[in-house]
Give the backbone structure.
Amino acid sequence: MTATDPVALTAKLIRCPSVTPEEGGALALLERELSAAGFACARVDRGGVANLFARWGDKGHARTFGFNGHTDVVPVGDAAAWTVDPFGAEVKDGFLYGRGATDMKSGVAAFAAAAIDFVRDTPPNGAVILTITGDEEGDAVDGTTALLDYMDREGEAMSACLVGEPTCPNTMGEMMKIGRRGSLTAWFTVTGEQGHSAYPHRARNPLPAIAQLMDRLSSFTLDEGTDHFDPSTLAVVTIDTGNPATNVIPAQCTGTVNIRFNDTHSGESLTSWLQSEADRTAEEFGVAVEVRIKVSGESFVTPPGPLSALVAASVEAETGVMPELSTTGGTSDARFVKDHCPVVEFGLVGKTMHQVDERVEVAQIHQLKAIYGRILADYFAAL
Ligand SMILES: [Zn+2]
């Protein structure tokens, strides 16, 4: 049998316009390919989002390797700025172009192709599960979470999982992720009393209060970093009052901060800190301070162990580079998978993610498929 071509599969996926939450034909295409290769497939659609579950081998096998990825993509942005059709999958000078080329249709194509060839050529004593969502770039409420809920209900389980998001900053193989920082956003609303700027004593100006609060929060050292994490960060992302008049003290203003936090903190501990700072400001300035908080993900780490060692060794064998075990970057769906089984992330170079003229080196897609194939072989050989 001929090997499954991951580049052709990536190109076909790019031609499916699957901007979140549109399925765009991408999951239907994968379902056809995987079903033909002997995978039992189930569409797990929820809340207007399409997701695909696929398993080769016996349900509930004690040794089940999983892959996770997404076929949805971010919008094209300024279409006129692209030098190619964003959904055309054009190849130029060794690069495949299109929205989703790096994030992450190539990753999905590489693990699907690797899994198809692996179970056909060397059927393992075990099972392989692919969980592919159509909602990673959006709210991710009905994406990987829906797939994991489905698996719980159906008695499906992965023993270990690899998320195929791009993880390498510049060179293929240089980085894998064993955890991620958490992310929390806090919206503060300060309310005082409107008045004439010539008579500030007759008003209660909320602006000095928000200014001091934002300064206190952003100049506070959250921690010094931990074994597997850089120090946590807090960024003030906006301060607004929308006051067009120079002779009016406004009644209200808002400020927003985003925190990326390591395993020193939790959404809960940060929430109580932010609330106490809000209360302190309210007290000092005689204003009302309201806080609304959203925790997008808690921090997590899969401590270095057999899974990370196996993935790192496969990466080194195929690329000659031993990957750094990192926890940097934004959130990913690994934050959901970590509650199900040990999870690590490895994928190709993500330089042009979400950009105009997003592209991926064709050779890297082949290399990624070879790495994923080797991970499968080594995982089941280690029985
Ligand atoms: Zn992604």
User: Anything to note?
Assistant: Residues 70, 103-104, 136, 165 surround zinc ion (CB under 6 Å). Residues 76 and 355 are 8 Å apart (CA to CA).
